[in-house]
Amino acid sequence: MLFAGVSWSAYGLTVEVLDDAGAPAAPTRHYDVVRTADLVADLLALTADGQQLKVVVDSTNGLLDGSMSVAGLEVFRADPHVLGLRPLFGSVDARQLAELARRPGKAELARLSVEDGSLRGRIGQMLEGWHLIQERMDTMAEAGNLRRHGSRNEATVALTFDDGPHPLYTGQVLDVLDRYDVRATFFCTGLSALSMPEEIGRIADGGHTVGNHTWSHPYLPDLTPAELREQVERTSDALRRVTGTRPTLMRPPYGSLAPRILDMWKAFDETLALWDVEVDDWAMPGAETITQRALSQTQPGSVILMHDAGGDRSQTVAALPALIEGLLERGLRPVTFDELHS
Ligand SMILES: [Zn+2]
């Protein structure tokens, strides 16, 4: 049996692999996010001769497990209560995560799957957090600090794509948008901005809006105020270095909000950019289902949440032409999130 830990930092991702005895079973490897496919292939190669492999990520590293699970790897999430202190910016180190896979002790690790997503076992907690902040979200929406949708009296809607860019799918999404001459909004992570500046440049040059989606896609309620600030500020800085403009929108990963996140958000300038139409394209329900879910929920002013990275997004790309045509047939014009009137 082998045990791998995948950590993140200001520079990218690091993988450490241990054997049964806790000795390194492969050299320490560093990857840019653009090379996620290589990271997955290298881990898969370790299982080629029938060797079993357990991979562990932590809850502040939310974008890898989909790609790894889809490839057939056995992936687990370690939550903060089973881990020690993290640095201000970065996960606990890869070796510590691998060690936890090897000797979990009483620590509970969540086995992740494509169907259940990165937050398996914590969805109830997240919904509880949401439940507690409904009124506060309304107040913030009135003040313009948070938006779930635009005006219901205007025939505009916003297509939004999270988690990218991706070296393959983002370009394909942009090609479809170009074909219909529509603009969208892309919520990008700092880790991606670091390794895919060309893709982000193409998004911005095409007249699309680039928003902040944090550095490493953490489950926000797990962060301290200082960690949240690092996640948001460093991502905005990285995006501004590429596009020349500081993002004015921030989309919380998973939509993970809780009372203390809203408390912390008072110190931020970015508008919390939520959505009112969810198609769950990350669970790969099929292109037709994605289109049909989007069209059946969308009304004037809607914000549609989709993903151009974080896993296999071929279904999202395939769903897009019929989705856009369906919107246009109803007289709903796609605009960027910031172009929606309130
Ligand atoms: Zn996301």
In short:
This protein is 37% helix and 20% strand.
Overall tally of domains:
2
SSE run: EEEHEHEHEHHEEHEHHEHEHEEHEHE
Tell the overall outline: globular
In the CATH scheme, the class of the largest domain would be: Alpha Beta
CATH superfamily of the largest domain: Glycoside hydrolase/deacetylase
Runs in which pLDDT lies below 50 for 5 or more consecutive residues are: none
Reading side by side through the largest sheet, how are the strands ordered? 3-2-1-4-5-6
End-to-end distance:
55 Å
- Give a count of the beta strands, DSSP E runs of length 2 or more: 15
| Count of discrete alpha- or pi-helical segments spanning 4 or more residues | 12
CATH architectural name of the largest domain? Alpha-Beta Barrel
> What small molecules accompany the polymer chains?
zinc ion
Q: Could you walk me through the main structural features you see in this protein, from its secondary elements to its overall organization?
A:
By secondary structure, the chain is an alpha/beta fold. The chain has 2 domains: 110 residues, Nucleotidyltransferase, domain 5; 217 residues, TIM Barrel (Alpha-Beta Barrel). The chain is built from 12 helices and 15 strands. Helix 6 links the parallel strand 8 and strand 9. The chain is globular and about 65 Å long. The model has no long low-confidence stretch (mean pLDDT 95). It binds zinc ion. Zinc ion binds next to strand 8.
